[in-house]
Write a structure and sequence with these properties.
The chain crosses the membrane at residues 31-51. The protein is mainly alpha-helical. 71% of the residues lie in helices and 0% in strands.
Length: 56
């Protein structure tokens, strides 16, 4: 078979489109940073609560 006779492979054509959704969308990044911020606050709160309980 020559190259002109080969049918186009749909998997190769759709591959660049499939890579785009795998990237983190720009509008989701603030929520990820907010989640880290909440997690750090929670860890600090638990740490200081344990220190207070041990001091009493």
């Amino acid at each position: 078979m020559r190259d002109e006779e080969m049918p186009p492979n749909p998997a190769l054509e759709k591959e660049p489109e499939q890579r785009k959704p795998r990237l983190i969308q720009p509008h989701t990044k603030p929520w990820i940073h907010f989640g880290y911020f909440v997690f750090v606050l929670m860890v600090l709160s638990v740490t200081f609560s344990l220190i207070k309980v041990m001091a009493d």
